[in-house]
Specification:
Elements lengths: L1 H19 L5 H33 L13 H20 L10 H11 L5 H16 L7 H18 L4 H20 L2 H12 L5 H22 L18 H25 L7 H18 L8 H8 L5 H20 L7 H22 L7 H17 L2 H12 L5 H18 L5 H8 L8 H7 L3 H4 L4 E4 L2 E2 L1 H9 L4 E6 L2 E7 H10 L18 E2 L10 E5 L4 H11 L3 E9 L2 E9 H12 L1
Parallel strand pairs: 1-3, 6-7
Antiparallel strand pairs: 2-5, 3-4, 7-8
Helix pairs in contact: 2-5, 2-6, 2-7, 2-9, 3-5, 3-11, 4-18, 5-6, 6-7, 7-8, 7-9, 8-9, 8-16, 10-13, 10-15, 10-17, 11-13, 12-14, 13-14, 14-15, 15-16, 15-17, 16-17, 21-22
Length: about 600
């Protein structure tokens, strides 16, 4: 029985991988989505508990966010000490190991096909917990997205899946992380596709949805079915509020542009020592922690108080502006903190402050402060991330109220337009990537090539052969009717030869019936495949997991005419599975377009 199971597994796994090479592997992707959601949900639970347990023990009062109740001296020392500790930790890491957060996930997707290391995940876990526990102005969702993406990527790497499916797994992990953090499965799906992947595909929706739902179930098993905030019933009292909603959207759009600009400006000092930068960030945090302690930590308690209309105008305005300034500056200086939570905080407090002004100007028609706070949250998230659909879905799932759709669409799109068109700002994540000298390619051609592995279109009708053959050996090779001959050299395959050219050569040099050569030359005893007349092609290797985008880049980098597809099957042993020509990639893309 065990032997039968082993043989079945050996047969099924290669078939599973092969199906994943193409774009039509929906059942296989669905299974991966479920596994991604399960593992990501578990990791996010551990991450949240690692933050909440020490804070519940350390902070006075109830809950894990009452930094305001700490003694003033403790509030001053805690973030500074935390920043220095983080600086020392990151100082001892290599530069590439310091990169964390959603920006790092996007970089790995664009430049490394979604491969994320275990070391990166561990660094993100430690720094993500440390920033919140030590009272930095930070969020937990950005680190959670990194962790979800890393867990799913590592699962794909362990299973040795093609790179196109690892990219899908990373999107599944991102969606599952947002879903488990907020208990908002729909916005998790849209966030992964709109913010991280920056593409929508029919094949991608199913596994990402399954991952998001599975992670939400895991989260609900621990925290119940309630969303991140308790939102009172919210409605727009009158259509006469629309001009005021537009005014709020404009103000939020300006604030979002200012936030992105501050991050970009302070981020230009990234060449300075990381210990110096984080120490400065900790020093800057001290006066904010003393005067406006609401900015410490995640700040969801302040958001909840705002929704319940329990905070005065000047506290809302001061906390919103302070959160904007200190978060953007510390983030730009390199503090490894998340940004989604702070955007919700800024949007809620600034929106709530505008709601109080509206109540004074239009006392008979103005809606509740919580209504404007929710609109502010959606508008700030949409404008900073340039992800209006993800922000709208988050708004709907957090409120569970369809009445928020119309004003939500208006405020989010207006704020996003103000930020992008009036101030020319791109998404915060794209802005940070650009400041690091990186870009994010998301053209339709690149997206199409990333979704397919070389294994899906390679020609498997090949035969590896030595360069020098006798006529008898050549005849035996041709009996198996290969299309291509991969000619071996001293350091691996060195050329690609159409088998028909070898057959033609054998025919041309075949001895005649009377024993004489047809071309009146002596028949060579040994055939040199790199010397006979043939349409040979220079070749270079490409890994079996590679996408068509990687193959195309390899063609451009090496200037070869063909690639042989290989995979490590044992130490120092490579197995060649097929060959691919540049024309094969072009033909495939044209076929998919038609």
């Amino acid at each position: 029985m065990r032997k039968f199971w082993h043989k079945s597994t050996q047969h099924l796994i290669p078939v599973f991988r092969r199906r994943l090479s193409g774009v039509d592997a929906l059942p296989q992707l669905a299974v991966l989505g479920l596994l991604s959601g399960l593992f990501t949900g578990g990791v996010i639970l551990i991450f949240r508990l690692a933050i909440e347990w020490p804070l519940e023990y350390f902070l006075p009062g109830d809950g894990s966010e009452s930094f305001e109740e700490l003694h003033i001296l403790t509030r001053a020392i805690l973030p500074l000490a935390g920043a220095i500790g983080l600086g020392l930790l990151m100082h001892n890491l290599a530069t590439h190991d310091r990169k964390v957060g959603i920006v790092h996930v996007m970089e790995r997707l664009n430049y490394h096909q979604g491969y994320i290391s275990m070391r990166s995940a561990l660094v993100q876990f430690v720094t993500g917990v440390s920033t919140v526990v030590t009272g930095q102005s930070a969020g937990r969702e950005g680190p959670a997205v990194h962790l979800g993406a890393a867990v799913s990527s590592l699962m794909g790497q362990w299973m040795r899946l093609p790179n196109n499916s690892i990219r899908t797994l990373v999107a599944c992990g991102c969606a599952a992380a947002i879903s488990a953090s907020f208990n908002t499965p729909i916005s998790g799906v849209i966030f992964a596709m709109e913010v991280v992947m920056m593409e929508y595909t029919i094949a991608g929706f199913t596994p990402i949805i399954l991952a998001s739902v599975t992670a939400a179930v895991v989260s609900q098993a621990m925290y119940g079915s309630e969303v991140a905030f308790t939102v009172p019933p919210l409605t727009m009292n009158s259509l006469l509020e629309i001009p005021w909603i537009i005014a709020i959207a404009i103000i939020i759009g300006v604030a979002a542009a200012a936030f992105i600009q501050l991050v970009d400006t302070t981020g230009r000092h990234h060449h300075r020592p990381v210990l110096l930068r984080l120490t400065i960030a900790g020093l800057l945090m001290v006066p904010f922690a003393i005067v406006v302690p609401e900015v410490m930590g995640i700040g969801y308690d302040t958001v909840q108080f705002t929704l319940d209309n329990e905070l005065p105008f000047w506290l809302l305005l001061g906390a919103g502006v302070a959160k904007l300034v200190i978060t953007s500056v510390t983030l730009g200086l390199g503090m490894p903190s998340g940004v989604i939570g702070p955007t919700l905080f800024m949007g809620a407090t600034l929106g709530g402050a505008m709601g109080l002004i509206g109540a004074q100007i239009f006392p008979d028609t103005a809606s509740s402060v919580g209504f404007y706070a929710m609109l502010g949250m959606g508008a700030m998230m949409g404008a900073v991330l340039q992800a209006p659909l993800a922000a709208l879905m988050a708004l709907m799932e957090l409120t569970r109220n369809p009445n928020i759709i119309l004003p939500g669409m208006l405020v989010i799109t207006t704020a996003s337009l103000v930020t992008s068109e009036a101030f020319g700002k791109k998404s915060l994540f794209l802005t940070i990537l650009k400041s690091q000298g990186l870009s994010y390619q998301n053209s339709p051609v690149i997206q199409a090539l990333r979704r397919v592995s070389v294994g899906a279109i390679m020609d498997r009708n090949i035969l590896r052969t030595e360069r020098f053959l006798s006529r008898e050996e050549a005849g035996k090779i041709l009996k198996s009717e290969p299309k291509w001959l991969v000619v071996e050299g001293s350091n691996g395959p060195t050329g690609l030869l159409p088998a028909v050219d070898l057959a033609r050569y054998l025919e041309d040099t075949k001895p005649s019936a009377d024993g004489e050569q047809e071309d009146e030359e002596e028949a060579p005893k040994q055939i040199d495949l790199m010397d006979i007349p043939a349409n040979r092609r220079d070749i270079a290797p490409v890994q079996y997991q590679a996408t068509l985008e990687e193959a195309l880049n390899e063609f451009e980098h090496t200037s070869v005419e063909a690639l042989y597809v290989q995979r490590h099957v044992a130490p120092m042993i490579q197995r060649v599975y097929g060959v691919i020509l540049k024309s094969d990639i072009e033909s495939y893309y044209q076929y998919r377009r038609s």
